[in-house]
Amino acid sequence: MTAILLPIFAVLIGFLIAIAFKPSINNKVNLLLSFSGAFLLSTIIFESLPEVYVNQNNEIGIFIVAGLLMQILLEFSSKGAEHGHTHQKDTDSFPWLLFISLSIHALIEGFPISENEHMLYGIVVHKLPIAIIVSSFLFISKIKLWKSILFVLIFALMTPLGSYINQQEFILESYKTPINAFVIGVLLHVSTTILFESSKNHQFNASKLAVILLGFIIAYYL
């Protein structure tokens, strides 16, 4: 139940923050984004990677690379919204490409969270700033409010849906490690991109370094 509720709450809280404060992509949101990237990356390195390589041969790396490539393909449509990049357009057209790519990404990242508590926390921390940024983008655009709400609600439900599918009997136990490796590849791309691209002009920023270190430390001790 926790794997279902926490991702939904993270998106809805981000949506409410966007309504209350109408934040643009400013320093505070970027700091939260950097923290989430560090926390997610640390969770992958400390917990998920060792788990998928236990009693596995090196071929498991193929699935990690496949996940990396999948995320690159998704970003051709989303333009990087999974790691905090949005591109405002002066239009009232529903952003179908963004919606589909974000939904697929959210569905994929939901697969391991019912069986990996640390990954669940990493995904939840990751979804909060993304939900703020995406919701802010929807509010700034000319999209009707009900369409924006529908977008966010479906996005919120996709990660729990992935978790639910992973628990069904047709997902054989032998498939779960390759699936988890594939998800690791997707999240590796997202988390590292957040860390390497979140600094403006790639300049040193003491505040950003501090929250990144904090993300690493908290993830290590959880």
Describe the structure.
The protein is mainly α and 222 residues long. It has one domain (2-17, 28-83, 91-221). The protein is 75% helix and 0% strand. The chain has helices spanning 2-21, 27-53, 60-78, 96-109, 117-140, 145-166, 173-197, 206-221. Helix 2 (27-53) runs antiparallel to helix 7 and helix 4 (96-109) packs parallel to helix 6. The model has no long low-confidence stretch (mean pLDDT 84).
Helix and strand layout, with pairings?
Layout: H1 2-21, H2 27-53, H3 60-78, H4 96-109, H5 117-140, H6 145-166, H7 173-197, H8 206-221
Helix pairs in contact: 1-5, 1-6, 2-5, 2-7, 2-8, 3-4, 3-7, 4-6
- Identify low-pLDDT runs: none
* Rg value: 17 Å
Number of helices: 8
Mean of residue pLDDT?
A: 84
What share of residues is helical?
A: over 70%
Helix/strand-derived category reads: mainly alpha
Count of all domains: 1
Biggest sheet features: none
Distance from first to last alpha carbon: 20 Å
Number of separate strands: 0
Q: Can you tell me the overall shape?
A: globular
Q: Short description, anyone?
A:
The chain is an all-alpha fold. Helices cover 75% and strands 0% of the residues.
Provide key terms for this protein.
222 residues, 8 helices, single chain
